[in-house]
Design a protein that fits this description.
By secondary structure, the protein is of the alpha+beta class. Helix content is 19%, strand content 16%.
């Protein structure tokens, strides 16, 4: 499962970033982003920790077809 942060819902509280065991969440100039290459959906914990902590419900699962399109548009390495 890959996750994404909806920047329109995100309050930029930063609570998700330190909780990510894969260090997949980072802050750009004004938004938080999940690097999908590093995110594994916290499979070893059974549920995404960042999603549990997000008070604004801004973190959601990316559907496979949308995820594949997203990879083609990525600006991150």
């Amino acid at each position: 499962m890959k996750l994404n942060i909806n920047e329109n819902k995100c309050t930029r509280c930063g609570s998700c970033e330190p909780e990510c065991p894969n260090e997949a969440i980072f802050q750009t100039d004004d938004v938080y982003v999940i690097d999908t290459k590093l995110c594994d959906g916290c499979v070893r914990y059974g549920t995404p920790l960042c999603k549990l902590l997000c008070s604004s419900n801004a973190i959601h699962e990316i559907k496979d077809s949308v995820y594949k399109k997203y990879l083609g548009l990525r600006i991150f390495n």
